[in-house]
């Protein structure tokens, strides 16, 4: 209490000024309509600023929670979208079996300026991530899980010279293998497409579905160069990725629930 009294005594002039100001404003507000209006406007302005500041603070504190909800909603929507793309070509929907599910993750490290590029994400064994799971973004393929720790996983990037992915030209039955051209960060090479195939620049390349990593019909990129190789019988095709690897941030890990059964059958052959 003594400290408060001492503080008031040290700042008596300031305290007196504030007190007189408050009294003056009170009299002005009670006796003058003009001043009532001005003070009301000032009060409303200050109140709006304080409410907006308070709202922003509350919104910021809830941002992390809202982001998690949005990511979860996107996860559900992406799962439905992938499933729907796979059933578009199936006549009897009663026969549909879709063994894939998604795990959302965020990239914590992304290499894209080497020949053998890798990506690290913030999900690992405790989240259900395992080796040889496919990884995608909202509009393309990222790569395949290579190593897994408790909380993190590394991915062999699609722009790694050691990886090729089964692919198909959309609306055709022409299948090939797509791999990094090493020319540009977002340019791939599509191999094994016969020169008799009726295709053109601008055609969309999608996942072929001939591997356990990715379901079919995931969009990868579009054809940007196309020419026939002499005496080889195949096209030389360059594909531009829909998703630029330097801009990857949020990804989805694809879990194939039939992977163990498929691997066991492969081992027996």
Describe this structure in words.
The protein is 35% helix and 31% strand. The protein has four helices and twelve strands, in the order H-H-H-E-E-E-E-E-E-E-E-E-E-E-E-H. The longest helix has 55 residues, at 33-87. It has a domain at 99-268: Thrombin, subunit H, CATH 2.40.10. By secondary structure, the protein is α+β, with helices and mostly antiparallel strands. Helix 2 (12-31) packs across helix 3.
Topology, element by element:
Layout lengths: L1 H9 L1 H20 L1 H55 L12 E11 L5 E6 L12 E4 L2 E9 L4 E8 L3 E6 L5 E6 L6 E5 L12 E4 L11 E10 L6 E7 L8 E7 L2 H10 L1
Antiparallel strand pairs: 1-2, 1-12, 2-5, 3-4, 3-12, 4-5, 6-7, 6-9, 7-8, 8-11, 9-10, 10-11
Helix pairs in contact: 2-3
Feature tags:
single chain; 6-stranded antiparallel β-barrel; 6-stranded antiparallel barrel; 269 residues; Thrombin, subunit H; alpha+beta; 12 strands
Radius of gyration over alpha carbons?
Answer: 31 Å
CATH architectural grouping of one domain: Beta Barrel
What would you call the quaternary organization?
Answer: single chain
The CATH homologous superfamily name of one domain equals Rod shape-determining protein MreC, domain 1
Biggest sheet statistics: 6 strands, antiparallel, barrel
User: If strands are numbered along the chain, what order do they take across the biggest sheet?
Assistant: 1-2-5-4-3-12
Report the mean per-residue pLDDT as an integer.
Answer: 78
Q: What's the number of helices?
A: 4
Helix percent reads: 25-40%
Query: Can you tell me the CATH class of one domain?
Result: Mainly Beta
| Gross morphology | elongated
């Amino acid at each position: 209490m003594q400290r408060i009294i001492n503080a008031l005594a040290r700042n008596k002039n300031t305290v007196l000024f504030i007190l007189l100001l408050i009294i003056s404003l009170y009299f002005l507000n009670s006796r003058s309509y003009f001043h009532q209006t001005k003070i009301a406007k000032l009060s409303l302005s200050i109140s709006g600023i304080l409410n907006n500041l308070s709202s922003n603070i509350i919104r910021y504190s809830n941002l992390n929670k809202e982001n998690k909800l949005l990511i979860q909603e996107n996860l559900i929507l992406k799962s439905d979208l992938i499933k729907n793309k796979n059933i578009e070509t199936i006549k009897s929907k009663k026969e549909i079996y879709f063994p894939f599910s998604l795990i959302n993750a965020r990239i914590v490290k992304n290499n894209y300026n080497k020949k053998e590029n890798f990506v690290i994400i913030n999900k690992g064994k405790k989240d259900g991530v395992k080796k040889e799971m496919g990884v995608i973004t909202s509009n393309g393929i990222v790569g395949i899980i290579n190593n897994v720790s408790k909380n993190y996983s590394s991915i062999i990037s699609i722009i790694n010279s050691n990886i090729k992915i089964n692919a198909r030209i959309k609306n055709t039955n022409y299948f090939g293998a797509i791999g990094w051209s090493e020319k540009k960060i977002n340019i791939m090479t599509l191999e094994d497409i016969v020169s008799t195939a009726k295709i053109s620049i601008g055609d969309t390349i999608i996942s072929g579905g001939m591997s356990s990593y990715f379901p079919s019909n995931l969009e990868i990129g579009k054809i940007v160069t196309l020419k026939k190789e002499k005496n080889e019988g195949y096209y030389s095709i360059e594909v531009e990725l829909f998703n630029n690897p330097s801009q990857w941030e949020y990804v989805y890990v694809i879990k194939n629930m039939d992977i163990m059964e498929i691997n066991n059958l492969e081992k027996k052959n």
